[in-house]
Amino acid sequence: MNHPEPTSQVAPVDAGVLNDPLHHGFPPGVAGRLLFWIAVAFSLFQIATAAHLIDMPSQVVRALHVGFLMLLVFPLVALARGRSAGWQALAWTLAGLGVMVAVYQWVDYLPLTLRAGDPLSRDIVIGVLALTTIFIATWISMGPALPIIAGAFLAYCLFGEYLPAPFDHRGYDFAQVVDHMAFGTEGIYGIPVYVSSTYIFLFILFGAFLEKAGMIKLFTDVSLGLVGHKLGGPAKVSVISSGLMGTISGSGVANVVTTGQFTIPLMKRFGYRSAFAGGVEATASMGGQIMPPVMGAVAFIMAETLGVEYYEVVKAALIPAVLYFASAFWMVHLEAGKYGLVGLPKAELPSAWQAIRERWYLLLPLLVLVWFLFAGYTPLFAGTIGLSLTVLLILGGSIALGLPAGAIRTIFWIGLGLVGAAFLEFGGQVFVAALLVLIGWNAISRGGSETLVTCRDSLADGARTALPVGVACAIVGIIIGTMTLTGAANTFGQFIVSIGQNSLFLSLVLTMVTCIFLGMGIPTIPNYIITSSIAGPALLELGVPLIVSHMFVFYFGILADLTPPVALACFAAAPIARESGLKISFEAIKVAAAGFVITFMAVYTPTLMLQDGGPLAAQLGYQFAVVFIVVKTVLAIGLWGAAVVGFAGGHLAWWIRVLGATAAAALIMAVPDTATLGLPFSLNSDTIGFALAAVFLALVWVRRNKAGQPVPGGVAG
Predict the structure, then answer these.
(1) Residue 352 and residue 84: Cα distance in Å, rounded?
(2) Neighbour tally for 78: CB within 10 Å
(3) How far apart are CA 43 and CA 20, in angstroms?
(4) pLDDT tens digit sequence for 453-475
(5) How many whole angstroms separate alpha carbon 67 and alpha carbon 61?
(6) pTM score > 0.85 for this model?
(7) Per residue in 269-278, pLDDT tens?
(8) 239: CB partners within 8 A, 6+ apart
(9) DSSP result, 359-414
(10) CA count, 13 A, side-chain hemisphere, 489
């Protein structure tokens, strides 16, 4: 059949979207069509290797994965930015060099393995080319911050021996450094690229197919039906829909741009300030990365790094994620009560139940994916199954709509279900055969060609979405390679430990500041990898459970995208909200305050992340400890929200807001004995926090009754 023009067209370059050229689609013209089909081939290659339709050594798959990244990034950036013909020729040349590096790793795989540690001259040349193309690709697609940081680490490998103690190392020659970074599995082809070329890519494709199939509309309609008519309904819709969409999106920042096109104008139309509307959307979208069951790419990297099952990461994130969104929901409720912002007319809203009845089948891949993840299967296998089922549903659904209602359509769906079950028993060959049949059927059926176009575009869009993630994973491998080669992490780690011996709180603050500082210029994934590599072992030495320390870093890596002065998610929301990104970031911090509360409380009481240990669990029992810390955290969030917004059933005086903030701080501090703070008496900080909270609530109650206002926080709901 004739190949139609790709439907994913490039949007005008908007400085408000962080100058991210990879955010936009494929440009029209010959070059755009070529890149579109290369992206399709990239996705098909990743699917084939994941399903073991093509069996290659892991090292080769990683190299070809990076080769595809280089082949797409350079020309896409040049075209998106409207560069001249000369610059475009240079871009294609760099893309070709990136492919040459991948082919060299593929063709010379066995010889390279045999001479590991003793590279030839041509190996060094290829290694230099690999490092050069990755540095340039990262710079032009993500800005200078991450390449500068990675370059500093690489320079440390080469020249660190000349630094004064304890920062020096024994010294490594140029060939040794290049061999370590560009070959093997310790540098650019390390764990991050392994995860990018397997789990991450599959789950990004999974999200792309679900988006094309109508998952955004399903999430939005359900959210509108549930809370759209409540007080502050539009903002609550944003919290729920963006949070749900974030679970299947490969990027929180990209999710801001996707769902924000609907939610931000909706909030503004019903009276929310532009900055607050953008802040709500940015907070909810970024929070999607920590919301089980399908979390962001970091979750897969964390599981692989820690050597634990994926469901262990999900278990640790469950309660904090729910509390994160509960806090955002509470903040928008208070904001709506403060300014009297009503919800949408209920008669104009879609029915949540009707939306589920019409598109229930879109939830099946998600439910199957969750079942496989929690049944102990690998994320790679679960992702393959989830993606396969999604494709079958999209193609099969198009055919089913053309069949007579009743028995024939039912038989068809049963047959499709049996094909899905046969995948488990007989492998990918069954899926391929069924796929070919469905493709042929759709090609000759009414409306089937549009479905095929949707699937084709999903393959291309998934690959494009994966580009910044893959590039970040590749260059951050240089930083990890530096740490494994030189042991650089020990210096900073021991510094954190030395501080923590006197004050764990100060060590946590130092780690938090590091995450936020790095997050000003680099995405969440490299931020997490860098900081966890340094701070994770140090916090473990201070008695913090390993998975809790990594979740601590992960959370603040996400919050870094909301924290001024450089808040990536907020600046992505700026052109939609028509407001300053800086103003949006200040509002986002208010909405995301739980992120700061939850993580600190989890360190002192690991049961908040469903982890064993902690004095509270030993004293009260595990189940009671979980209930207690959840209740305490909810209370702290409620107090903090009221103090920040200045509203709880009515406008609060400044001294009542201070009282609420002080009560929340006391609950967060978890100081077992105030005598350690130099006070002349001994009290538990929780006791102080609960006492101050009781005083705060009593004052709010009294003032509310005097003012004759009916419900704390405004109208119920």
Answers:
(1) 50
(2) 23
(3) 21
(4) 888 888 998 888 888 878 888 88
(5) 10
(6) no
(7) 777 888 888 8
(8) 280, 283, 284, 325, 328, 329, 332
(9) HGGGHHHHHHHHHHHHTT--HHHHHHHHHHHHHHHHHHHHHHHTSPTTHHHHHHHH
(10) 18
